[in-house]
Write a structure and sequence with these properties.
The complex is a heterodimer of chains A (414) and B (249).
Chain A lengths: L4 H5 L11 H8 L15 H4 L3 E2 L5 E9 L2 E9 L6 E2 L2 E5 H10 L5 H4 L7 H8 L5 E5 L8 E7 L7 E11 L4 E9 L5 E10 L4 E7 L6 E10 L4 E9 L3 E10 L5 E10 L4 E10 L5 E10 L4 E10 L7 E10 L5 E10 L5 E9 L3 H8 L5 H14 L7 H20 L3
Parallel strand pairs in A: 1-8, 3-7, 6-8, 7-9, 8-10, 9-11, 10-12, 11-13, 12-14, 13-15, 14-16, 15-17, 16-18, 17-19, 18-20, 19-21
Antiparallel strand pairs in A: 2-3, 4-5, 5-6
Helix pairs in contact in A: 8-9
Chain B lengths: L1 E10 L2 E11 L4 E5 L6 H9 L4 E12 L2 E4 L5 H6 L2 E4 L6 E5 H16 L6 H14 L10 E2 L5 H15 L3 E5 L7 H14 L5 E5 L3 H6 L4 E6 L2 E6 L2 H9 L6
Parallel strand pairs in B: 3-10, 3-11, 6-9, 9-10
Antiparallel strand pairs in B: 1-2, 1-4, 4-5, 7-8, 11-12
Helix pairs in contact in B: 4-5, 5-6
The chains are: A alpha/beta (414), B alpha/beta (249).
The structure holds adenosine-5'-triphosphate and magnesium ion.
Magnesium ion binds next to α1 of chain B.
Chain lengths: 414, 249
């Protein structure tokens, strides 16, 4: 029922689209008539001069190491040898499968196809020549942060770029990831990150967009093995337009997923989160907490679906959308949904939309804080709560991004 | 230190204070008693500068740099930074903001204004723990959201902690004793006595004589129908306890 209708209508990409890729792309764009794009205005992709090239290309990796960090830049480029360092290796799908087979590792997680797709994730699959996987093995240091920096177009002419990569975390391995989305503000970056988290493994993922970065459609698909854990925090501020599709497949017993986001939105900025959590086996748990601060004509969307399937007894899901509206022209659209086919489960959802409380502000003022400092303090704690479950190094990264963003946001109200 | 003359105040266009006079000098402790709805909290709020309470007539002066200054045009935070403190009858919950962060922001806002050095987390932690001890609040309260889920008594104690952190000159305590158990009342009274000095003044709004057994007032006022209708020594409080307000309504 949650399947995207659109995908059934188009048999995805024709063998050769290079000549009129732009037309193909535009003709097939989702419209507001599609349920999951109802609040998402894609019309600028039709009207703006945007160089759209859907020719198949290679991914180019550029790796550097710092003290406690590995930085991997990914962009579209020429075929090059794929790098391998201690703790992780970058390889094509075929080699990865062979290696896992040789190591006697089960391929169950990898072999299941993704039920969850959208127009843009299909595009990112189709335009990259080969499947590229990054495998984290037992040598990977838990302390290190793996930075995945997507490099969109830096060319003067605005471009549409589309990429996909898969990350495989071996059983029992813990990985801290920081994913960023870079490029020209007038460009468009479309990425898909597929994550396969092995049994008893854990991933903490911080996603952030630098200010003035491209408009983005970001798809994150996560499949969790038995007793594995996934924690994600998205932070967005001062970005014109972004759409985030997050799909979580809780396919191993006792797997746990925790999704949090905080975003600051003003002027005509638009931030859209769509999530789909699939509890397919029992004893799986999920938590979602999406917190938005909206000022000016900012617009935030949260559309969260939780599906607890018949065999997922004893599962437990919570989802919450929280919005702070600072202006009467700001808009928050929240639609949490539960679809429950099992009877012995716990599920809870909620949405709050509120303004800054004037009595709270007065109380803080009576303690010496200016009205603006009081506002800033409330907004800061609202935004910072997203980092609650991050390990220290990633949390520090989050604070370093969020602190100046909140300050900027509260000092220059739109 | 504070001089209120012929004060008229309306809330939502409803007149509440109707020509109130009050003068408080440094070193004094005043008690204000009076029936429910007579305007005690309104007086407290208007002195703290709450925007919903409109002064329609009268003056309010406060000693700033040894000069009696009209404070009606000052914002609530300006007044606070000049040493005016209100302990709320109903302290406000601020979900998401930790007590520690709030108290530190408050301290540093005052320090900046008054030319003291501000404190970082570490310094402030040492400083604020001593303030919690005054009212026997556990350190864990620092890491909880301001007043969120605090019991009635804990909220009142937290007001005293804020007062101790800010060391104000004029302290308005609006029914800080209500909701405290007998031991807590002693603790809070003891805290007030420790903070008393010749340079500051207290106005205690209360319904009960008991607080005044511990914190001896110099002057007791009866507020009724939006005005101070009688002032006297501490024996007035005892008399009120026996006779009620009937004679003043
Ligand atoms: N924000 C408000 N909106 C409407 N009416 C108000 C407001 N604040 C106060 N009032 C009214 O003003 C009058 C005085 O209220 P106030 O809270 O000052 O009384 P009080 O003396 O503190 O009473 P209590 O002893 O019950 O605390 C009451 O009739 C009250 O209903
Ligand atoms: Mg009152």
């Amino acid at each position: 029922m949650f399947k995207e209708k659109l995908l059934e209508q188009i048999s995805f990409l024709p063998a050769s689209v290079s000549s009129d890729g732009a037309n193909f792309f535009r003709q097939n764009l989702p419209t507001k008539k599609d349920e999951s794009w109802k609040y998402t205005d894609l019309s600028f992709l039709n009207t703006e001069p945007l160089a759209i090239d859907l020719q198949k290309t290679y991914l180019h990796f550029d790796i550097s190491e710092a003290a406690q960090e590995v930085i991997v830049k990914i962009k579209l480029g020429n075929k090059a040898t794929l790098p391998t360092t201690q703790g992780f290796s970058v390889m094509e799908g075929g080699s990865l499968r062979q290696k896992l087979k040789d190591d006697g590792v089960s391929l169950t997680l990898l072999n299941k196809t993704w039920q969850e797709q959208n127009y843009f994730s299909r595009l990112s699959e189709s335009t990259v020549t080969s499947d590229v996987y990054i495998l984290f093995d037992q040598q990977w240091s838990t302390e290190k942060i793996f930075q995945l920096q997507w490099q969109g177009s830096t060319a003067a002419l605005a471009q549409f770029g589309s990429m996909r990569v898969s990350l495989v975390v071996a059983d029992g391995v813990s990985v801290q990831l920081h994913e960023t989305f870079n490029g020209n503000a007038n460009s468009f970056l479309n990425t898909t990150t597929d994550l396969y988290i092995g049994a008893n493994a854990s991933v903490h993922l911080l996603k952030s967009q630098p200010q003035q970065s491209p408009r983005t459609t970001i798809t994150t698909r996560v499949r969790l093995g038995q007793a594995s854990q996934f924690y994600m925090v998205s932070f967005i501020s001062e970005n014109m337009w972004s759409r985030h599709n997050t799909y979580v497949d809780l396919s191993g017993r006792e797997a746990h997923a925790d999704l949090k986001a905080s975003f600051l939105c003003r002027e005509k900025e638009f931030v859209d989160h769509h999530t789909y959590i699939d509890h397919s086996v029992g004893y799986t748990t999920s938590r979602q907490d999406y917190a938005g601060v909206l000022d000016g004509r900012g617009e935030g969307v949260f559309n969260g679906k939780v599906h607890i399937r018949r065999d997922a007894q004893k599962s437990d899901a919570e989802q919450l959308s929280r919005n702070l509206l600072l202006s009467k022209n700001a808009v928050a659209n929240a639609k949490p949904e539960l679809l429950i086919d099992a009877d012995d489960v716990k599920a809870k959802h909620g949405a709050t939309i509120g303004q800054l409380d004037q009595e709270e502000i007065f109380y803080m003022q009576s303690r010496g804080l200016t009205a603006q400092q009081a506002r800033a303090l409330v907004i800061k704690s609202f935004v910072f709560s997203a980092a609650d479950h991050l390990p220290n190094a990633l949390a520090q990264k989050f604070y370093a991004l969020a602190a100046p963003a909140v300050q900027n946001f509260t000092e220059k109200p739109s | 230190m504070l001089k209120v003359n012929n004060l008229h105040v309306s809330v939502n266009d409803k007149p509440v204070l109707k020509g109130l006079n009050l003068e408080v000098k440094a070193g004094e402790v005043h008690a204000i008693m009076g029936p429910n709805g007579s305007g005690k909290s309104t007086l407290s709020k208007v002195i703290a500068g709450h925007p919903a309470y409109k002064v329609t007539e009268g003056t309010m002066e406060y000693d700033i740099n040894f000069k009696m200054t009209n404070i009606l045009e000052m914002s609530p935070d300006e007044r606070a930074r000049e040493g005016i403190f209100l302990a709320f009858q109903y302290p406000v919950e601020i979900p998401g903001v930790t007590n520690f962060e709030f108290l530190k922001a408050s301290y540093n806002a005052l320090a900046k204004q008054q030319g003291f050095p501000t404190m970082d987390d570490e310094k402030f932690a040492t400083f604020v723990k001593k303030k919690l001890e005054i009212v026997k609040l556990n350190e864990s309260f620092l890491h909880r959201a301001v007043n969120s889920g605090f019991s009635g008594g804990e909220k009142k104690k937290n007001e005293i902690v804020q007062m101790a952190v800010m060391s104000p000159r004029l302290c308005f305590l609006d029914e800080t004793d209500s909701g405290l158990d007998i031991d807590a009342l002693k603790v809070v009274a003891d805290g007030i006595n420790r903070l008393r000095s010749p340079n500051n003044a207290f106005v205690l709004v209360t319904h009960y004589q008991r607080l005044l057994d511990y914190v001896k007032p110099d002057i007791v006022h009866v507020l009724s129908g939006g005005r101070i209708v009688k002032s006297g020594g501490k024996e007035l409080a005892l008399e009120l306890e026996k006779q009620g307000y009937e004679a003043y309504i």
